[in-house]
Amino acid sequence: MNKFLKLLPSYSRVLVAVLATVGLVGVLPVSLAELQTGKGCPHLGLIPACHVVSVAYGLILVSVIQNRFWKYGLFFWGWVPVFFLAVFGSGLELLGQDACPKTESGWPKCFSSLILASVIFLPLPINWFTKKSKKTIF
What we know:
Distance between the termini: 19 Å
Order of helices and strands: HEEHHHH
Shape: globular
Helix content: over 70%
Number of helices: 5
Strand content: under 5%
């Protein structure tokens, strides 16, 4: 069990990197459609929400790949908008409003983003409680 706990931080970095990449790959076509047609995603004032989410998933990915002192800020600046936009969009979808871009099968992409953001966050508390040194989150 002790060997597993020592390996957990490196596994969690890989998990977060893979999930952030999945999120980025999922939102990039929506962002490109928004750039081409102007109708790819909802807007937050003048800013398309899909662009915010694209940048946010990128920040999460960069925070896991690099090992600098500011990686914690990058992670949270990426995770917070993804999570809260997904919660807000999912809530609107559940209330019957057409708030999120859909997949070809009709599944709102904000549901997927909410699941991804939730799973991306899970390694953090695990690492906080399993590490003796709190120098790194991942």
